[in-house]
UniProtKB/TrEMBL annotation:
NCBIfam families the UniProt entry points to: PRK02391.1
Species for this entry: Halostreptopolyspora alba
Cofactor comment: Binds 1 zinc ion per subunit.
Keywords tagged on the record: Cell membrane, Hydrolase, Membrane, Metal-binding, Metalloprotease, Protease, Transmembrane, Transmembrane helix, Zinc
Organismal lineage: Bacteria, Bacillati, Actinomycetota, Actinomycetes, Streptosporangiales
Family: Belongs to the peptidase M48B family.
Single Gene Ontology BP annotation: proteolysis
Subcellular location: Cell membrane
GO cellular component: plasma membrane
Membrane topology summary: Multi-pass membrane protein
Protein name: Protease HtpX homolog
UniProt GO molecular function: metalloendopeptidase activity; zinc ion binding
Length: 306
């Protein structure tokens, strides 16, 4: 995490390296398996590499477009820019782009495949509900994702699951509507499609589990980094409690639209009741109680001067 004053997190670094290594192994096995079950290798390269390049270079733009977000200038959002400017000065890091998403779902996220393309975005719902110090704490959390570079790792890690999901859908539709005629010199196209589906499902499950494990840890890491940078862990806890409580008042339709971005959000877009019905295996974030408990411990440490 060179180049910023956010506290280093060697545990996060180790987990990111392990996740990327394991996903790399899965990636290679994925390509080999697709070719083995009969998918033409030029098509494998085109789909897998094409998706990888597309997502890597357009992930920030796709996220912004999907959330209805727009980049704002200091003249358009002076208070928001002032908070980001102050935090970047405190953290001694380059300032990312600043954006606002027109959504009543109170949340924030960071995206971008490198620091030059990094974007920190808040929703209009968040701006309406938080006090200035609470907003500062949430933005410090998001900036720590950029400084830790875990946004980049999550972006790269996510593409494998997207490719696997895409191939699963294509394979199932081919089996359903493409018929089962024999190939000229090999297995029937339907059998190849079934093989692609099986391989893709296995890869999707593995990539899903690996990214979820990293996602939960990185949120705790960002909470710690933000709390130590601002010196106000209780303010971050207040923002977390307020946002989580407000989620229950957001229409279900709006929450469902925002759900695909849960892995990148400050807090997941569902009500507290819905959130606690999910298995920890599938959760993008650790439980709110665990996050608040960690912040309370940091508050005690700072209060004792240790």
């Amino acid at each position: 995490m060179a180049g910023s004053k956010f506290i280093p997190d060697h545990g996060l670094t180790a987990r990111m390296l392990l996740t990327m290594f394991l996903l790399g192994v899965v990636y290679v096995a994925f390509v080999v398996a697709l070719i083995y079950v009969g998918m033409p290798w030029p098509l494998v390269v085109l789909v897998v590499v094409g998706f990888a390049v597309f997502q890597y270079f357009t992930s920030d733009k796709v996220a912004m477009f999907s959330m209805g977000a727009r980049e704002v200038s200091p003249e358009q959002a002076p208070q928001l820019h002032a908070v980001v400017d102050r935090l970047c000065a405190m953290a001694d890091m380059p300032k990312p782009k600043v954006a606002i998403a027109d959504s009543d779902v109170p949340n924030a996220f960071a995206t971008g495949h490198n620091r030059k393309n990094a974007v920190v975005c808040v929703t209009t719902g968040l701006l309406r509900r938080l006090e200035n110090q609470e907003l500062e704490s949430v933005l410090a959390h998001e900036l720590s994702h950029v400084a830790h570079r875990d946004v980049m790792v999550m972006t790269i890690a996510g593409f494998l699951g997207i490719v696997a999901g895409f191939l699963t859908q294509v394979g199932l539709r081919f089996v359903a509507f493409g018929g089962g005629g024999r190939g000229n010199n090999g297995p029937a196209p339907a059998l190849i499609a079934l093989g692609v589906v099986v391989v893709s499902v296995v890869v999707w499950v593995l990539s899903f589990v690996l990214t979820r494990m990293l996602s939960r840890y990185r949120e705790l890491s960002a909470d710690r980094a933000a709390a130590y940078l601002t010196g106000q862990p209780s303010t971050l806890g207040s923002a977390l409690t307020k946002i989580t409580g407000e989620m229950g008042r957001i229409p279900s339709r709006d929450l469902r639209q925002a759900e695909p971005f849960n892995a990148f959000f400050f807090t997941p877009a569902f009500s507290k009741k819905q959130g606690f019905s999910l298995s920890q295996l599938f959760a993008t974030h650790p439980p709110v109680e665990q996050r608040l408990e960690q912040l309370a411990g940091i508050s005690r440490q700072l209060g004792q001067g240790t």
